[in-house]
Specification:
By secondary structure, the protein is mainly beta. Strand 2 and strand 3 form a beta hairpin.
């Protein structure tokens, strides 16, 4: 499971700072109690009785493809994506947990992401930062020459003016999933 997906799942289940530790209680968008929104753009619920397990994560690409981290029946995560897409258009990354008290009802959290082409390779994670015009790069946890960063990720960072940061994880052999921020 990618680090960003694990973070979403932890937050959804209440393990993130500022979110109650009891899963499902006081989650913004699911109850009337206001809490910090957390790392997600959308929190919703969906009925997906055919979806096995207690937790699932996926990335929805702009073409409608769902890239699922787990081996699940085709189409079983579609109800989750449909619920998210009432409020957030792809591409996005989502994590969902099954509600214990209702058959087939899932809590779903999603965050908007950027997608860039990836060339085949072993690199799994890239972090880029531009501060005061100086670019720095971390590749799989080690400092690297900024020029060694994948070109598609550099292009995403260049889409922001001024100081900015970007974190990307490999989705598959041909795709990076990234988030970026103005600093």
């Amino acid at each position: 499971m990618r680090d960003s997906t694990q973070g979403l799942l932890d937050a959804l289940m209440g393990a993130a700072t500022g979110v109650p530790m009891t899963p499902g209680l006081s989650l913004p968008g699911l109850t009337a109690i206001e809490q910090p929104r957390g790392p997600w753009d959308v929190v919703t619920a969906a009925h997906a009785p055919e979806l096995p397990g207690d937790a699932v994560s996926f990335v929805a690409l702009a073409d409608g493809t769902l890239v699922v981290d787990d081996d699940i029946p085709d189409g079983s995560a579609t109800p989750l994506a449909d619920a998210v897409e009432k409020e957030l258009q792809p591409p996005y990354e989502a994590a969902a947990v099954r509600r214990e008290d209702e058959d087939g009802l899932w809590r779903v959290a999603a965050v908007s992401v950027l997608v860039a082409p990836a060339e085949p390779g072993d690199t799994a994670r890239v972090e880029l930062a531009r501060v005061g015009g100086e670019l720095s790069a971390t590749v799989d946890g080690s400092e690297a020459a900024p020029g060694s960063a994948p070109p598609g990720l550099l292009d995403l960072l260049d889409g922001l003016d001024g100081d900015a940061a970007l974190t990307a994880e490999r989705l598959d052999d041909t795709t990076w999933v990234a988030q970026r921020w103005v600093l």
